């Protein structure tokens, strides 16, 4: 994992689907779980969704809080 990916979770919006426009860090756990069961998309967005799923599944969303509001 690239540490920069954690910052991307709090700055990147979901580009498609039911939660289009929602920050990846704010996606609901059941939506992330659906991707985990059905398959993550290819590319960077899939990698970030998989990372967010792991953080949510392991109750580690709080790790992202200090990164909110950080500008690149």
Give the rounded overall mean pLDDT.
Answer: 94
Instruction: Give the low-confidence spans.
Output: none
Number of strands: 0
Query: Based on CA inertia axes, which overall geometry fits?
Result: globular
Give the helix/strand class.
mainly alpha
Q: How many H/I helical runs?
A: 3
List keywords for this structure.
globular, single chain, mainly alpha, 72 residues
Q: How is this structure best described in words?
A:
By secondary structure, the chain is an all-alpha fold. The chain is built from three helices and no strands. It has one domain. Helix 2 crosses helix 3. The radius of gyration is 11 Å and the shape is globular. The model has no long low-confidence stretch (mean pLDDT 94).
Question: Secondary-structure blueprint of this entry?
Answer:
Blueprint: H1 4-9, H2 29-38, H3 43-57
InterPro entries: QSregVF_b
Protein name: DUF3820 family protein
Pfam family, one: QSregVF_b
Brief overview:
This protein is an all-alpha fold and 72 residues long. The chain is 43% helix and 0% strand.
């Amino acid at each position: 994992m690239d540490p920069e990916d954690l910052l991307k979770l709090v700055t990147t919006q979901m580009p498609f689907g039911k939660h289009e426009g929602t920050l990846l860090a704010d996606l609901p756990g059941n939506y992330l779980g659906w991707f985990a069961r059905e398959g993550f998309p290819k590319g960077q967005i899939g990698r970030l969704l998989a990372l967010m799923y792991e953080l949510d599944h392991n109750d580690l969303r709080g790790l992202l809080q200090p990164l909110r509001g950080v500008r690149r």
